[in-house]
């Protein structure tokens, strides 16, 4: 399942404008987000999940988690 | 803060697969965390989960502050039961033990000592626990002291018999039965 998700994500990333070179993987295996805003990123993930065909209307097995990491990225004010 | 909450809400409504948001606010923004969690629970109930991980990697003071706010137990509420517990502990122990127990006076002195210690520390959380422990120590003292005095002359010297480890209550079956029967 994990490999299936990985391959689907790689396919989705490869089909983008920048390709795999733009979304270069980091040391932890995560893709670099080369999009300008979060909505495009969500769209890519949702398309990849939909292409996998794992989620059904009755039950959604694959979901999205968001780590905002506000401490690092936002001003405290 | 409100703008960020609105942004997260918009994300949740626009993307139904989004189920988990971690570290939505900065560590120092404890009020923001509270407000966001409350709003999410009201609107989305179990659909969206909110996680906080970075906060618990920070210093202890921040975690303490956060837990205090989350539990909504202010220092006033913690300080209030302090005299009440002391008042309850004294008659409860005294009522059982005072008529014949010579150790009751010792207990009161111990309780007063603990009060003095707690007052010097100035921490309400540290003040509450010692009082019941003193009550437990009384039982412990009886349970430990009796065998030391009686068994030493009868049996061969046991190197560990005189060693009393503080904080460990040695329960005998007799004492337990008497406690439960009473």
- In the predicted model, the low-confidence regions of chain B spanning at least 5 consecutive residues are 73-77, 91-106, 117-141
The CA-CA distance between the termini of chain A, in Å, is 42 Å
Q: How many domains in all of chain B?
A: 2
Largest β-sheet summary of chain B: 2 strands, parallel
Structural class of chain A: mainly alpha
What's the arrangement of strands in the largest beta sheet of chain B? 1-2
Largest interface, chains and sizes:
A-B, 21 and 19 residues
- SSE order of chain A, one letter for each helix or strand: HHHEH
Instruction: Count all strands of chain B and give the number.
Output: 2
Which strand-content bin applies to the residues of chain A?
A: 5-15%
Terminal-residue CA separation of chain B: 58 Å
Give the radius of gyration of chain A: 14 Å
What order do the helices and strands of chain B follow?
HEHEHHHHHHH
Radius of gyration of chain B, rounded? 26 Å
Q: Please estimate the helix content of chain B.
A: 55-70%
Determine the mean pLDDT of chain A. Answer: 84
Helix count of chain B equals 9
Number of helices of chain A: 4
Total domains of chain A? 1
Report on this model:
The complex is a heterodimer of chains A (77) and B (182). Chain A is mainly α. Chain A has helices at residues 2-14, 19-22, 38-52, 70-73; one strand at residues 64-67. The longest helix of chain A is centred in the middle third of the chain and has 15 residues, at 38-52. The N and C termini of chain A lie far apart (42 Å). Chain B has a two-stranded parallel sheet with strand order 1-2. Residues 73-77, 91-106 and 117-141 of chain B have low confidence and may be disordered. Chain B is mainly alpha-helical and 182 residues long. Chain B has 2 domains: 2-72, no CATH class; 77-181, no CATH class. Chain B contains 9 helices and 2 strands; from the N terminus they run αβαβααααααα. Classes of the chains: A mainly alpha (77), B mainly alpha (182). The A-B interface holds A 38-39, 42, 45-46, 49, 55, 60, 62-72, 74, 76 and B 4, 8, 11, 14-15, 17-29, 54.
